[in-house]
Write a structure and sequence with these properties.
alpha/beta; Immunoglobulin-like; TIM Barrel; 7-stranded antiparallel beta sheet; 11 helices; 25% helix; binds alpha-L-arabinofuranose; GH; hydrolase; non-reducing end alpha-L-arabinofuranosidase; glycosidase
Length: 500
């Protein structure tokens, strides 16, 4: 059978404007994300703040607009006051989440400084595990209140005269998970969010709040968790979070690449729950989604079990991503764009060293290396901007162990600033696929660029930096359509100047 794939778009049929924050990321006090990742004063590239400039340059390539911090599981046992003030007076603590030693040499002020250097805004998480309403409202006061109070003046004393004005706040982390320090039932957490959000907004009414949804689609409490939390806190929050990591422990490529079907279903399910609660409450308000942890995660799990506890910056969650991981990450990114009407925040988890697109070495050159997943994420974060277009696709499916999977995943966006239509396509077949993009209500002008990530063994990883994007040739552009041949198992991006 010759598999063909067609994507038909109409510039007048739009899903939604894309919120740039959909391409955010996440940095946690975990393993070598902060220490030896962001912060390493003794490193040869360290700047006056101890931040690695090689890492800053790599992060800038990804253009992440929003970065969640300081956790993750870490935040549920964290005292943010440990990370402020003179560094020589900060306590070393046990981090119970990752059984590591936390020196607190990097904290709130350092994070804010670093965010400014990589041109990102913070998404600040508060501890609702061991702490609660009081810590959250104090932190908002410390960060956002101008001056004249205990906490705002302490911020000024610590060197930040102007308020940080942090807009986005994660109200807890994965509180549905029994691994979470201070894990709660949905009812307990829903009530706590209601009260915490109330206090946070009393300090600063302009904050945007993200409540914890489920830690994964497969969690036994999925569905009832979302419903109960929103029942208690619908009016208090703006976003509900979703976390999802995929693995390929079975080494089953067809099934693994099919997991974007589950991701799509997860988002659709949560939208349905949010809207059901909305209807029941006769509310005019819409809750949007924050996919604030998503990625592949499994390669490092066995090694992590062997790590010695209570060390500083241990090598934890250092997945080395292979080619098939890059294909799935591409597919998951396409899925986010398909739901751009409701997914307003996304955080690829994480950013540096820990299940990350960017890895650092403590010695040798180059001191930073890019994982396979860096490439599709860099392309969506740079070019997946503007308006997501509704798609009519015509492509056969295959049946994996669990899913009915289209052989291609694709989405087109139109960027009114650059006048470009940009299409992203993953070919999940082991054969070449002739691909056609049809356009209505506009005209293609000229090709800007077409690239592919293709031709690698599915298990190849990129420590040697040999994996590259290459030109996608044999492509024809006419006024109302584009034809291309997609390599077997490939990630593709085509950019075309378009007259509207
Ligand atoms: O990103 C790694 C961990 O995954 C986070 O700390 C937690 O929120 C999730 O379980």
């Amino acid at each position: 059978m010759i598999i063909k794939s067609t994507l038909s778009i109409d510039l007048n049929e739009q899903i939604s404007k894309i919120d740039p924050r959909i391409w955010g990321s996440f940095t946690e006090h975990l393993g070598r994300c902060i220490y030896e990742g962001i912060y390493q004063p003794e490193h040869k590239t360290a700047d006056e703040d101890g931040f690695r400039q090689d890492v800053i340059e790599a992060v800038k390539k990804l253009h992440v607009p929003l970065i969640r911090y300081p956790g993750g599981n870490f935040v549920s046992g964290y005292n943010w006051q440990d990370g402020i003030g003179p560094k020589d007076q900060r306590p070393t603590r046990l981090d119970l989440a990752w059984r590591s030693m936390e020196t607190n040499q990097f904290g709130l002020h350092e994070f804010m400084k670093w965010c400014a250097k990589v041109n990102a805004k913070p998404d600040m998480a508060v501890n609702l595990g061991t702490r609660g309403v009081d810590e959250a409202r104090n932190l908002v006061e410390y960060c956002n209140f101008p001056k004249g109070t205990y906490w705002s003046d302490l911020r000024r004393k610590n060197g930040a005269e102007e308020p940080f004005n942090i807009k986005v706040w994660s109200v807890g982390n994965e509180m549905d998970g029994d691994w979470q320090i201070g894990h709660k039932t949905a009812h307990e957490y829903g009530r706590l969010v209601h009260e915490t959000a109330k206090a946070m907004r009393l300090v600063d009414p302009s904050v945007e709040l993200v409540a914890c949804g489920s830690s994964n689609h497969q969690n036994t409490t999925f569905g009832t968790w979302e419903e109960t939390v929103l029942d208690n806190a619908y009016a208090d929050v703006d976003y509900l979070s979703l976390h999802q990591y995929y693995d390929n422990f079975d080494d089953n490529l067809e099934e693994f690449l099919g997991k974007s079907v589950d991701f799509d279903r997860f988002i659709t399910d949560v939208v349905a729950i949010c809207d059901a609660v909305k209807a029941r409450k006769h509310s005019d308000k819409q809750i949007n989604l924050a996919l604030d942890e998503w990625n592949v995660w499994y390669h490092s799990m066995e090694d992590d079990k062997k790590q010695k506890p209570w060390t500083k910056a241990p090598h934890l969650l250092e997945d080395h991503y292979n080619f098939e991981d890059a294909l799935l990450v591409g597919s998951l990114a396409i899925t986010l764009l398909k739901h751009a009407d409701r997914v307003k925040i996304g955080c690829l988890a994480q950013l540096i060293n820990v299940i990350a697109p960017i890895m650092t070495k403590t010695s040798g050159d180059p001191s930073v290396w890019y994982q396979s997943i860096f490439y599709p994420f860099m392309q969506v974060s740079n070019y997946g901007q503007g308006i997501a277009l509704a798609q009519k696709t015509d492509v056969p499916t295959y049946k994996s162990k669990t899913y009915e999977v289209p052989y291609t995943d694709s989405i087109a966006v139109y960027n009114p600033k650059t006048h470009e239509t940009v299409v992203f396509i993953v070919n999940k077949a082991k054969d070449k696929i002739p691909f056609t993009l049809n356009l209505a209500n506009a005209q293609f002008d000229s090709l800007v660029a077409a690239t592919q990530f293709a031709g690698y063994d599915i298990h190849q990883t990129n420590e040697d930096q040999s994996m590259k994007l290459t030109p996608l040739n044999n492509l024809t552009v006419s006024k109302d359509h584009v034809n291309a041949d997609l390599e077997p198992l490939s990630w593709n991006m085509i950019r075309i100047k378009t007259e509207v």
